[in-house]
Amino acid sequence: MSTNPTVEEAGRAVADPAAYADEARLHEALTLLRREDPVHWVEAPGYNPFWAITRHADVMEVERNNTLFVNAPRPLLSTAELDALRAAQRARGPELRTLIHMDDPQHRVVRAIGADWFRPRAMRALEPRVRELAKRYVDRMVEYGGACDFVTQVAVHYPLYVILSLLGLPESDFPRMLKLTQELFGSSDEEMRRGESASEQMAALLDFFAYFRALTESRRAAPTDDLASAIANARVDGEPLSDVDTASYYVIIATAGHDTTSATIAGGLHALIGHPGQLDRLRDDPGLLPTAVEEMIRWVTPVKEFMRTATADTRIGGVPIAEGEAVLLSYPSANRDEDVFDDPFRFDVGRDPNRHLAFGFGVHFCLGAALARMETRAFFAELLPRLGSIELAGAPELTATTFVGGLKHLPIRYTLT
Known about the structure:
Number of helices: 16
Number of strands: 14
Order of helices and strands: HHEEHEHHHEHHHHHEEHHHEEEEHHEEEE
Strand content: 5-15%
Helix content: 40-55%
CATH architecture: Orthogonal Bundle
Structural class: alpha+beta
Largest sheet: 5 strands, mixed
Radius of gyration: 21 Å
CATH class: Mainly Alpha
Organism: Streptosporangium fragile
Distance between the termini: 45 Å
Shape: globular
Number of domains: 1
């Protein structure tokens, strides 16, 4: 897409993984859509058509009306080829059904299985361990001798260790979980993906299923005091979850539970490097850390979109939406909406209020939001008092994606005690 895109070009950028690896291009497109056509019909090559919803108020309206706009059958933007593959799988039998695929009443019941593990009481109990791990990974930065690729050597490992420890998985399996997550979320990125075809992308998911099927059998045979055991032995209406639903629950916890947080931590550090005045402000006033974390989350917006399907004829922002038509909720766009955020392209560690939608809204609000906030806060609380200087040591690189992503490389030089 060239500079000064047409509205149609801007709409197609929403479905282009390469656009999310070029933030200037992406936000030029989204800004144009918010201004000229905030509920825009997109016909992009290789995709089934959809409406792109780009304003904060309209995204919230769709999220709020979770019976009018449902997750099934198209909860995420994927190619027409992958849509067809999944439809064929549904016809043959059970398919992946994570919380992001489910609608009420099933969503409410299944969500409750893991909810207690992410409530404030559980977070308070987990906080000492999170702080310990934050110190471990800042210490590791010292061991690297003042230079590292912050993403690959630090950011992806710290939240991975937290969430997989919560699940109760052995540390020897962590590298495998990281690779499978990167293949799943990076299926549009040449560096991350397993292969180009839809069947190769599905293979990464099937590998997850095989791993978690074995884990389920183990935890049912010998229950333990961890989240994996709680999921494996959960019952709904007196019956255990099916193997598919159990594996699906593990997949969403093990993947979204760390990849989004690592993107926030890496993107937050990049923002501080690029805005040295804000870095100084935060170091001088650590009391700003809670608002700084919220601003990092808004700035990065690791989850780029979810899809919903209209169950009846309706309107969004005055635009008619027909029953059965799909809408894409653009969170990066909502989080830069000029009608909601004062100077939205300014990174401000003291931004308050900050009504970002990076965790979603309504019944599908992110289950792990409190954990993500705590991990990010703990990491920067450990890093900033020990940081002498920091600068880029090369060009940062973003993942090509339309779903979850952020920086995949962040080379930095620093002094650290």
